[in-house]
Amino acid sequence: MDITTSTWCEHKPVWLGRIAVSSCEDCAQIEWFSNNGPIDSSEAMAALFGSYDLVGPLDALGAPAPQVLAYAPPNGRKRRYLDALPKHVWLKAGPSLWMSHDGEMLLLATTQPMLFENLTRGA
């Protein structure tokens, strides 16, 4: 696995089932891996958080977008996936997508209206 490092931080992967997450609160980056190497952020997020339930949009303060989408985990096992990420830090999860959490709820923010719509479709 090719993990990014810098002089300020070292990104160590945490395995959550078939997906490894390497996140850093210092540089606000996140990387996704499988046994075969790096994987697309949307594929990784779907595998880890696809079963989360949309609670709804919230007005945001301090987020990279004016609104965020809040998602609740379906059970305690899936809630523990949030423990692999630093709390209260906006991580760049993919193109035009940021994620954060408070230990209980997953928060997603995007500045792209189409992506916002896709994240709420079917909820």
Mind describing the biggest β-sheet?
A: 5 strands, antiparallel
* N-to-C span: 35 Å
Helix content: 10-25%
Average pLDDT over all residues: 88
Number of helices: 3
* Domain unit count: 1
Descriptive notes:
This protein is of the alpha+beta class and 123 residues long. It has one domain (14-120). The chain contains three helices and nine strands; from the N terminus they run ββββαββαβββα. The chain has helices spanning 41-49, 76-79, 113-120; strands spanning 14-16, 19-24, 29-34, 37-38, 53-59, 67-72, 91-94, 97-101, 106-110. It has a five-stranded antiparallel sheet with strand order 5-6-9-8-7, with helices on one face. A four-stranded antiparallel sheet has the order 1-2-3-4, covered by helices on one side. The longest helix is centred in the middle third of the chain and has 9 residues, at 41-49. The mean pLDDT is 88.
List the helices and strands and how they pair.
Blueprint: E1 14-16, E2 19-24, E3 29-34, E4 37-38, H1 41-49, E5 53-59, E6 67-72, H2 76-79, E7 91-94, E8 97-101, E9 106-110, H3 113-120
Antiparallel strand pairs: 1-2, 2-3, 3-4, 5-6, 6-9, 7-8, 8-9
Describe the structure in brief.
This protein has 123 residues and is α+β, with helices and mostly antiparallel strands. 17% of the residues lie in helices and 36% in strands. Strands 5-6-9-8-7 form a five-stranded antiparallel beta sheet, with helices on one face. A four-stranded antiparallel beta sheet has the order 1-2-3-4, covered by helices on one side.
